[in-house]
Amino acid sequence: METGKITVKADTDYLDEVLEFIETAAADMPMKMQNQLALAIEEIFVNIAHYAYKSYDGGGEAVITASSDGEKLIVTFEDMGVPYNPLKKDDPDIEASADERQIGGLGIFMAKKLTDGMEYTHADGKNILTIYKNLPVSETA
User: Fold this and answer.
1) What is the C-alpha to C-alpha distance for residues 92 and 25, in angstroms, rounded to an integer?
2) Averaged over 51-61, what is the pLDDT?
3) Superfamily holding 2-134
4) Edge-to-edge, what's the strand order for the sheet holding 126-134?
5) Among candidate residues 127, 50, 42, 133, the one with its CA nearest the CA of residue 88
6) 3-state secondary structure of 42
7) 25, 42, 43, 121: least CB-packed within 10 angstroms?
8) pLDDT level of residue 89 (50, 70, 90 thresholds)
9) How far apart are CA 72 and CA 69, in angstroms?
10) CB-CB contact of 35 with 133 (8 Å)
């Protein structure tokens, strides 16, 4: 069931708007889970803002949809920027020193660790990245 959709310019100036949207969509989650989700959302949106439309004048838009199937919150990001599957990038070596570590990839690595699942597809000229965050199991007596 879709809980909401927002379309914003793929620009970090719109990050607060995106985070407010997610805060509303995740309102029933415990605060710790909301914070984890918000950090993952921030990392993904900033990547879209900085890299998706690099070769386009004026940038583009990001469409973010939130929905729930009763077991998990599902957040989907769509952009029409340069095709890029962040899941194909190797995870950074977090054991390496900062001098030895390659630049990039830490944000998506964090997003993967803070969520319960992530999928990517490219269809109809769009990058579509979907993340999942399991909802807490409600305890009934």
Assistant:
1) 30
2) 78
3) Histidine kinase-like ATPase, C-terminal domain (3.30.565.10)
4) 2-9, 61-68, 72-79, 126-134, 117-123
5) 127
6) helix
7) 121
8) low
9) 6
10) no
Interhelix angle 15-25/31-47, nearest 10 degrees: 140
Q: Which residues pair with 76 in a beta bridge?
A: 65, 130
Over residues 93-111, the pLDDT tens digits come to 555 555 554 555 556 778 8
The answer to whether residue 140 scores a pLDDT higher than 60 is no
* Whether the Cβ atoms of residue 103 and residue 93 lie closer than 8 Å to each other: no
The Cα 99–Cα 141 span in angstroms is 54
b/e 100-131 (16+ beta carbons within 10 angstroms → b): eeeeeeebbbbbbebbeebeeeeeeeebbbbb
The domain segmentation of the chain, as residue ranges, is 2-134
Q: Which residue has the tokens 């029409």?
A: 80
Beta strands of the chain (E only): which ranges?
Answer: 2-9, 61-68, 72-79, 117-123, 126-134
Global pTM value = 0.84
Structure tokens at 24: 């509303």
Q: At what angle do helices 106-114 and 31-47 cross, to 10 degrees?
A: 150
